Amino acid sequence: MNFRRLVNPLRHSDHKVLGVTYLVLEALDFYGFMFCERRYSADFLWFMAMKVCGCLVTASALRNFGHLAKSDVNKGMFAESRTFS
Question: Per-domain residue ranges for the chain?
């Protein structure tokens, strides 16, 4: 797999957009927790946005990367020798 195909914006675009959205929400979540704690804890939408987006990212990863299932040849992320594959 070459680099251009990997970073192609049209390939798995929903997962990429949700991933960037999750990172932005994580930065806003940190800012709200550190500097606007009273408003952050009172606003349910601000509090739950990152958690909901994380669930959506997970769902899109399961949908987009289902073809990466385990097999006898490829045992998944960690092989029997406990090396990262």
Answer: 13-85
Torsion of CA 41, 36, 24, 43, to 10 degrees: 30
One-letter amino acid of 31: Y
pLDDT band per the 50, 70, 90 thresholds, residue 80: low
pLDDT at position 32: 83
Amino acid in the structure at residue 23: L
Measured in whole angstroms, the distance separating CA 4 from the mean position of its chain's CA atoms is 21
Would you call 47 exposed, middle or buried from its count of C-beta atoms within 10 A (0-12, 13-18, 19+)?
middle
Residues shown for the chain: 85
63/6 Cα distance (integer angstroms): 17
On whether the CB atoms of residues 32 and 40 are closer than 8 A, the answer is yes
